[in-house]
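quick q for whoever's on today - can somebody do inverse folding on this one?? i tried earlier but teh output was garbage lol. tokens:
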């Protein structure tokens, strides 16, 4: 989203010449398929709309042979758009995937420190994908991915009202009253965290398992909030993101949410807000098979084993 610019209260009374720069918004905004360039990049799965704007400002995008310097530019269906000198991939139907992120991988495309990223861990055969938000390197569990940058941006915003649920293993003495008080929100080191649903599931000596539900998803929110209650987070697993559930999806496995199921879970309001496209073709089909996790050398858990994993963690 571009920032609002302050109004110029000292406008020159002389008529101005029409702008010829490529960062001026073209007058023919009603031509077929006209939309902002960043939105087009996002729909092509290149990046989220915010990241696409940064690409444009960096001079990486050209339209009809001229390099753009601002995302304030509309394009139509017939415009030739290049990113880093290469044509954009054809627009594909909006798709969404659930990934069971293992611990120890970074949620980024490339890591300057050379650490393994989630895109190194994903199986082959997937379209170009964007993550919906991020999980810390040691956080496990459900990560939502999509090929539609507009949808990714819409799902990240707190105003969706979607609850993100986590199973958390902590070390320390749990104060039930303090957990209950999180419903009113809490300030930690000058940062206010909104209402959090927190329940104590079980205690094992000096360790305990909690379930937390939150809607904001601020950076390191769970660890910061529980740390303020004197609890050390030793394991963190996201088990749901809005209507999407981790279920018994094996670590390292991917599942696509398809067709009517996806539309029903998103809802028409969110579909319209994101500008999701369910009319375009699927150019790279993906089959949901449990074998994907086995191909990565990780176990596919049955429900009982998965519950045991959440409650007890690895033997180490």
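ok took a stab at it. sequence:
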């Amino acid at each position: 989203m571009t920032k609002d610019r302050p109004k110029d209260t000292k406008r020159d009374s002389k008529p101005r010449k029409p702008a010829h720069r490529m960062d001026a918004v073209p007058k023919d905004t009603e031509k077929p398929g006209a939309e902002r360039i960043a939105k087009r990049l996002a729909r092509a799965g290149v990046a989220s709309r915010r990241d696409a704007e940064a690409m444009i400002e960096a001079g990486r995008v050209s339209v009809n042979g001229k390099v753009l310097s601002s995302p304030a530019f509309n394009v139509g269906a017939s415009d030739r758009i290049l990113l880093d000198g290469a044509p954009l991939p054809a627009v594909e139907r909006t798709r969404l995937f659930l990934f069971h992120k293992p611990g120890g991988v970074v949620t980024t495309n490339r890591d300057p420190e050379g650490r393994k990223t989630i895109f190194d861990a994903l199986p082959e055969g997937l379209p170009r994908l964007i993550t919906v938000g991020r999980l810390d390197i040691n956080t496990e569990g459900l990560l939502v991915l999509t090929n539609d940058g507009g949808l990714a941006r819409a799902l990240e915003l707190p105003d969706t009202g979607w609850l993100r649920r986590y199973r958390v293993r902590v070390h320390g003495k749990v104060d039930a009253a303090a957990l209950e008080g999180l419903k009113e929100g809490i300030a930690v080191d000058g940062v206010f965290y909104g209402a959090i649903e927190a329940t104590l599931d079980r205690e094992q000596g000096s360790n305990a398992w909690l379930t937390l539900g939150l809607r904001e998803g601020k950076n390191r929110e769970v660890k910061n909030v529980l740390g303020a209650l004197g609890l050390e987070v030793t394991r963190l697993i996201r088990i749901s993101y809005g209507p999407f559930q981790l279920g018994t999806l094996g670590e390292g496995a991917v599942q696509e949410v398809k067709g009517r199921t996806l539309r029903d879970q998103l809802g028409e309001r969110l579909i319209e807000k994101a500008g999701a496209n369910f009319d375009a073709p699927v150019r790279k089909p993906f089959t949901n098979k449990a074998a994907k996790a086995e191909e990565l050398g990780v176990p596919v858990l049955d429900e009982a084993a998965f519950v045991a994993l959440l409650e007890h963690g690895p033997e180490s």
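fwiw The longest strand covers residues 232-241. also The longest helix spans residues 303-312. so keep that in mind when u check it
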